[in-house]
Amino acid sequence: MAPIGILETATYHFEQTAKRLNLKSGLADRIYWPKEKIECSINPILSNGKELNIKTFVVRHSDTLGPAKGGIRMSSSVSMEEVSGLAMEMTWKTALIGVPFGGGKSGICIDPAALNQDEKEIVIRSFTRGSMRHISPELYIPAPDMGTNETDMGHIRDCIAYSEGIAITKGCFVTGKPVILGGIVGRREATGKGVVFTALAACDKLGIDIKESRVALQGFGNVGSVAALEIEKHGAKVIGATDISGGTYNPEGLDVRALTDHVRETGGIKKFSGGQDIQLDDIFGIDADIFIPAAGGSQITEGNANSIKARIIAEGANAPVTPAADRILNEKNIFVIPDILCNAGGVFVSYLEYTQETQREQMTIAEVENRLFDRMQERFQDVYQLAQEKNMTMRHAAMDMAISKVVEGITCRGYRP
Ligand code: NAD
Questions:
Q1: What is the DSSP letter of 354?
Q2: pLDDT over 70 at 138, yes or no
Q3: What are the tens digits of pLDDT across the range 274-322?
Q4: Residue by residue, what is the 3-state secondary structure of 86-127?
Q5: What's the confidence (pLDDT) of residue 399?
Q6: Among the atoms of ligand 1, which is closest to the Cα of residue 245?
Q7: Position 413 confidence tier, pLDDT thresholds 50, 70, 90
């Protein structure tokens, strides 16, 4: 059986929500189908003269509530389908977390690990020039996602300003930039911290003492490593983690700072001396209270969902759980904090970066972190309350709330062009 993709998962959840909300088919179609899908080939020439041919994708799923917002995924397997599913998820996420954006996403089909820093910059600049007509503060504002980071966002900003022959861009074309280039303090940490803020709220509801809790993570990049450091700060023990290189386990608790240093120095988790090596799939069965998937999509499947022992799954990754696995997790009474809520901290702080740049002001780290904490907690409570009232899962409540906001936006704008 072919593995289920992110678009299929996103479509499944949308169709279920449309039924629950009793949306008429015309309206459902209007919400479901993307505004625009662009596939573009780029041909960067590397410093050694090697010519590449790379497929890139930009999807603007919705602009009902504002310009499309969503990260750039760089991976050898990224496809138009995956980008479309992720863009749709962004529409629900921005609506739910309450920022004036729609949903978008882009993809660059190459393995970032196969490029050195110079080569990556050449590819990023080539993507930017190829997609320039689709990136703007009024249309689509990219940010980092898997395989891209703030350095890449700095190159995008520079490339756009350079092409226009100006020193700074007119408005915010990209978020997640280095702070020195108009980025906002705390953006890099925002998604991982937001994940932990919702996990803390869930522990509170379930009567779990965070200081007594054990945590396992899949993925130790931006989201995973920040979430690990943050949850450790709140007193939890991180007992297992994996990245693409391998995994590590220590029932007494890993030293997360030392693990982060090891990853920075060696390029991956493998052979970390503070724990025993484990296989990638072992992470699902670890006896933890909280499991944070923070790698790719469709990782928790019917094949491994039964082995999960955690009481809480905090979806740091986008669409990490397939619909079949979701049913198993519900039957096992595992409390799942859905991605569109759990990992929305990144886009929330991106919105702060957007307003900061537009208004030419500077926010402090305390302001950013307090606003992030408040918004994540507030939205968690809203979703939790609806889930309790309607006796539904957190995912169903979050989806119902998000799509109702998009419907409200369409209604307020009016149906005619
Ligand atoms: P990243 O590229 O910084 O890190 C990805 C991590 O996943 C790496 O450690 C990689 O080695 C690991 N990984 C990949 N395949 C794996 C596997 N099979 N098993 C174990 N580990 C594996 O990416 P990121 O920005 O941290 O994004 C991670 C997830 O969070 C993605 O699903 C992304 O869409 C989602 N997300 C990111 C942000 C953000 O602000 N960066 C915001 C919202 C959601």
A1: H
A2: yes
A3: 999 999 999 999 999 999 999 999 999 999 999 999 999 999 999 999 9
A4: HHHHHHHHHHHHCCCCEEEEEEECCCHHHCCHHHHHHHHHHH
A5: 98
A6: 11
A7: very high
For the chain, the average pLDDT equals: 96
Q: Which two tokens stand for residue 309?
A: 């022992």
User: Which atom number of ligand 1 is nearest to the Cα of residue 263?
Assistant: 9
* Per-residue confidence (pLDDT) for residue 1, from 0 to 100: 55
105 annotated active-site: yes
CB under 8 Å to 254, separation ≥6 — which residues?
237, 238, 239, 240, 241, 248, 272, 274, 275
CA angle 406, 12, 350 (to 5 degrees): 45
How far apart, in whole angstroms, are the C-alpha atoms of residue 110 and residue 54?
Answer: 7
How crowded is residue 409: how many other Cβ atoms within 10 Å of its Cβ?
18
Task: Look at residues 334, 341, 260 and name the one whose alpha carbon lies nearest to residue 300.
Answer: 334
Q: Is the CB of 144 under 6 A from ligand 1?
A: yes
pLDDT recorded at residue 46: 92
Q: What is the DSSP-derived secondary structure letter of residue 132?
A: G
Q: How confident is the model at residue 30 (pLDDT cuts 50, 70, 90)?
A: very high
Distance CA 82, CA 89 (A): 11
Which run of H or of E encompasses 370?
helix 365-390
pLDDT tens digits, one per residue of 73-121: 999 999 999 999 999 999 999 999 999 999 999 999 999 999 999 999 9
DSSP H or E segment with residue 243: strand 237-243
**Which of 106, 146, 372 should be mutated for ligand 1, with most atoms under 8 A from CB?**
146
Q: What is the DSSP string of 273-306?
A: TTSEEE-GGGGGGS--SEEEE-S-SS-B-TTTGG
Q: What pLDDT was estimated at residue 165?
A: 84
| pTM of the predicted model as reported, rounded to 2 decimal places | 0.96
Give the model confidence (pLDDT) of 153-170 as tens digits. 999 999 999 988 888 778
Distance, CA of 195 to CA of 201 (rounded, Å): 10
For residues 317 and 414, what is the distance between their CA atoms, to the nearest angstrom?
34
Q: Are 400 and 386 in contact (CB under 8 A)?
A: yes
Q: How many CB atoms within 10 Å of residue 379?
A: 23
